[in-house]
Amino acid sequence: MKTKKRxxxxxxxxxxxxxxLMNGLCGFTAIIFASRGVGTVWSPQFLPRVNVTFFAMxxxxxxxxxxxxxxxxxxxxISDSTSGFGAQLDSLCDAISFGAAPAFxxxxxxxxxxxxxxFENLQYSQFVGRIVYLIAIIYAMCALIRLARFNVExxxxxxxxLSFAGLPSPAAAGLIISMIIFQQDFLPKIAxxxxxxxxxxxxxxxxxxxxxxxxxxxxxxxxxxxxxxxxRLLRGKKSFTTFLxxxxxxxxxxxxIQVAMVLGFFIFMLFGLIRWPFIYRRTSTGxxxxxxxxxxxxxx
Length: 300
Description:
The chain is mainly alpha-helical. It has one domain. Helix content is about 75%, strand content about 5%. The chain has a two-stranded antiparallel ribbon. A two-stranded antiparallel sheet has the order 3-4. The longest helix is centred in the last third of the chain and has 41 residues, at about 255-295. It is globular. The N and C termini lie far apart (about 55 Å).
């Protein structure tokens, strides 16, 4: 009985794979930062001006992973070195950076802040903790399902790289980390201006975070269409208005990356939700019209 010869991997594109691994490295580093808690501040000797919490650094590392995730595909296409190995490696790194890392960061963020609250009912406190754990698990599982479905349904056609079915995992992670970075690295800078309401804002972000995490996880496994922003921007020539919009966006990011991240990721999420009913209605109308035309032209 002949045994099927196993196909061996002979060649690997070095540069795109290194960029993809950088994504996974950022995700793993984010988990390390998140595990160190909120009470400590990361201030390395070689960067004396960097003075942010470990939770904020965890969010920034996931954001760097997003940048690496955007670059690896473009590097592979420019160098004409796209491969199945690269696609599988990309999904595995995404599972770490945009699946496990955001879920763990959200869990630690809420867990530590809830420890400072005095619940009169111990059972209620345990119930809230279990709900947060469950939400973190649901998000991580939805991210894995989203990535597995993307691998199965992915096509080599260029049109398939212009949109996504469901919220992309980097955008889902962005919804979570943008809120944490906003709370950890922006609110303290305006604490004097907020005054006594600072702790109320801080608590509000912590309470909303599990809800946003659950919403992001569920949106990943839907069929709601979302555009591939980078591929659409970099594809072909664009109008002068698009160029000005890109410049103003870049200036806004430079002015306050924390606020820009919150607005950017939430606008992207809402854009898909608002646009979806119109697309669904147009698609349904077109399908009914095509079926009616087919029946009219069919021989009796």
